[in-house]
Amino acid sequence: MQTLMVESDTFRYPIHIGSNLLQSNQVWDGLVKQLSPSSFFIITDTNVAKRYLDRLQSQLEQYAQTDYMVVEAGEASKSFVTYERLLTYALKQGFDRSTVIIALGGGVVGDLAGFTAATYLRGVPYIQIPTTLLAHDSSVGGKTGINHSEGKNMIGAFYQPAAVIYDVTTLKTLPEHEWRSGMAEVIKHGFIQNTKLLQSVKRTVSTPIGDINAESIENILYTSIDVKRQIVERDEKEKGERAFLNFGHTVGHAIEAELGYGEITHGEAVMIGMMVALKVSEHYYEVDLASNSWCEDMKSLGFSVRIPASCDSRSLIERMKRDKKSLQSDIRMVLLPSLGVPNLVKVDSTFIENILKEELEEV
């Protein structure tokens, strides 16, 4: 097991990365001693519950009463309706401020459970247990929230977890496309800070998940999470450099909203967004970042790199204007003057729309 500590003036918590951690007495004994829970409330989804809910529940019941609620798998569950259902269940069960909420699942469950924890009784502790590669990014840093019809993650809060437990054995059951999708966020960390990650990821993505040993997965996760840890420690509330973690997300989120949440995975949308951002960067800074070569590399790894033909460039622009990084409807994007050196800049909507049109798939 490898452990990273995330700490600043206002928070401190561990990220445990290793095998078979769901039932690790070493991990849970320490957390129970720290949190003294009166009860546990596991929030998970229909896919994850089949594989891991019983295992985790039996472990937690050694320490305190454990309840759970299962939501439908998929982005559509990040909604007001599901959020209200969780709060209603918690209130009816009489959970108190010593109840610890457990987010067992991917990014959707983590965001939803985290927002529930942030707002229930004005805040109760929660623990992130990501079960997808994609969630290695969203589980760290305290961003929680739900979607609105006008945009992704528009309703939420910054609320740090008490711990993150990353049991890499859960990744072995991921479908190949989910494994590849999750690698998009690892690749993002390579583009914005640690360019060595890009080469190791290219080797790893091309290998079936079942053929990768746990140690290799742990090392990639450790290196990738460490990039985010450093940034979050310096900028918890996204007042400055934390915005760099949104590289590829301005276009990616717009694509997700345009297609309808759940029609494309977050990682797939972010990959397209990153390829667009590379091309925008080249035009904006008048530099050569080898964007065409990177597009070919990503295509060879199984990623789509073109904006789906069903998207409308003008509609994407309007959605980008409502992005959380935007100010007074000005589009702001994370661009790269060189690999590993991100900047947040204001870009002209006409300039962006022309590039979006070029990047649309041909019908």
UniProtKB/TrEMBL annotation:
Gene Ontology cellular component annotations, sorted alphabetically: cytoplasm
Subcellular location: Cytoplasm
Domain of life the protein comes from: Bacteria
3-dehydroquinate synthase N-terminal domain: residues covered: 69-180
Keywords: Amino-acid biosynthesis, Aromatic amino acid biosynthesis, Cobalt, Cytoplasm, Lyase, Metal-binding, NAD, Nucleotide-binding, Zinc
EC number(s) per entry: 4.2.3.4
Primary residence: cytoplasm
Residues that hold NAD(+) according to the record: 107-111, 131-132, 143, 152, 170-173
Pathway field: Metabolic intermediate biosynthesis; chorismate biosynthesis; chorismate from D-erythrose 4-phosphate and phosphoenolpyruvate: step 2/7
Record text on cofactor binding: Binds 1 divalent metal cation per subunit. Can use either Co(2+) or Zn(2+).
Broad EC category: lyase
Reaction equation(s) it catalyzes: 7-phospho-2-dehydro-3-deoxy-D-arabino-heptonate = 3-dehydroquinate + phosphate
3-dehydroquinate synthase C-terminal domain residues: 182-326
Pfam families in UniProt: DHQ_synthase (PF01761), DHQS_C (PF24621)
PANTHER family: 3-DEHYDROQUINATE SYNTHASE, 3-DEHYDROQUINATE SYNTHASE, CHLOROPLASTIC
Protein family membership: Belongs to the sugar phosphate cyclases superfamily. Dehydroquinate synthase family.
HAMAP family: DHQ_synthase
Role summary: Catalyzes the conversion of 3-deoxy-D-arabino-heptulosonate 7-phosphate (DAHP) to dehydroquinate (DHQ).
Annotated protein name in UniProt: 3-dehydroquinate synthase
Gene responsible for this protein: aroB
